[in-house]
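Journal club prep, shared notes

We agreed each person brings one worked example of a sequence with its structure written out as tokens. Mine is Tyrosine recombinase XerC. I'm keeping it raw so we can talk through how to read the token line rather than staring at a rendered picture. Sequence first:
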Amino acid sequence: MDTLKHPFFEMFDDFVKERGAKNDWTTSTYEKFASVKNHLLAFDKDIQFNDWNEFRLTDYVNYLRAEKKMRNSTIDNQLDFLRWFLRWAVEKGYSENRDFDAFKPKLKTTQKKVIFLTWEELNRLREYPIPESKKYLERVRDVFLFCCFTGLRYSDVFNLRRSDVKSGHIEVTTVKTADSLTIELNNHSKTILDKYKDVIFENDKALPVISNQKMNDYLKELAELAQINEPIRETYYKGNERIDEVTPKYALLGTHAGRRTFICNALSLGIPAQVVMKWTGHSDYKAMKPYIDIADDIKASAMDKFNRL
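Then the structure, token by token:
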């Protein structure tokens, strides 16, 4: 096959354009694939479809590990993105090389820690008296707590309009998966909406949501002030080297911890998984399993309270 007719990087751009339009990619997905392309260009700007044999794929893994200092789990993700593109190229007739199908390097990985707030930590964050000089943290806290009490992702709370707020519930079409969700309001989420009901935000937004990056930064600042500092040990691999890092919980907090906090606490309160999944839009138990395991651990330690009576 004439690879010059279908240059690798030109076809990569076509792939991004076509898949992005078809799957309605978000900005962050486009950014992810721009980063994938940059890594491939830095690896070999002249590479073509026929070059991707087992040796070249192994070279790429070694490059990502040695030059880009990537963890095994990140390399795994990069390979998944590359395979997706190479598979698409075969389906389109731009390439006949299927060596990537058989390429399965043994990369040691560990399951990522689920970062969430326990009830005690959630209350500590909620009740922390924010100093006068840091009042900008108040709105960040309100939005984060709203996620903790509804299970909304950042993209959906950012998108929430007043017209989505009904009597006793909110109606949301999720940005990531286009699921239509009805989420009942509890006293906590209702109080936060009521606090801002007379404040006017652009695009008729229901809450004062700032950019994700800024919110993540402020969230860490707030959690540090509120002493959410339980040491969290994370284990990952670079090649065969095992690396253990211990970090205070506040440094690992981001907007997505709100959704995880909602799920873990809902399950530990005894709310059935299938009910929680209706609120969050999860479609299978596989995605819920890490949360169910955490809820089981919380329940086991809760039973210990009887021993102290």
